[in-house]
Amino acid sequence: MCKVFRKRADRIVHQLIEDMSYNTCGFITNQKLSDKLEELSEALSVDIQSSEESTLEEALEDKDEYADIDVYEEGEASLVFCSNALLEEDSKLGQLTSGGKQLTEFMLSETSMVFAFRFYEQGEKVAEDFYVFEPGFTCYGANKLQLTEASDILEEGLSAILQPLMGKPFEDLDLSASVLRLKL
Fold first, then answer.
1. Chain Cα centroid distance, residue 100
2. pLDDT band at 21 (very low <50, low <70, confident <90, very high)
3. Which residue in 83, 99, 101, 114 is deepest, having the highest Cβ count within 10 Å?
4. Contact criterion met (CB below 8 Å) for 162 and 26
């Protein structure tokens, strides 16, 4: 069982980091969301039907439109994976940032070579970064992450957001860790 799981985990890591064919969306916030499912449901305009346990490895798989929402927690932070259809320009994610909370939304597509980050504080979107790598490198927005054409999006982009909140970069997350899978 452990050998099979390790092979599958290695395949996912290989796909995400080495093959660079990943498409992943979600957000990270400096609060535990497993205790705030009603607020999360309202912010994403979805109805949560049920929940079950899953793994971080499964959470990293591409999500279909309006698929499950996966919530991984470590320390006082939550890393949420969901469909990009739930992360629209006019989303209500900002409402999760009252009381000094912060939230960074990410939409990462190695397939199309487009990477987007939106930053929320005090209920409002305060900045956004859009990086396009083809046909040439272009940055739109605030460039808050200060990424360049030579940047590795996972290591320098997503990890720059994760490290302060979870104490580790993206590539050091334990793929066998438990996540809360919310069924819509």
1. 20
2. low
3. 83
4. no
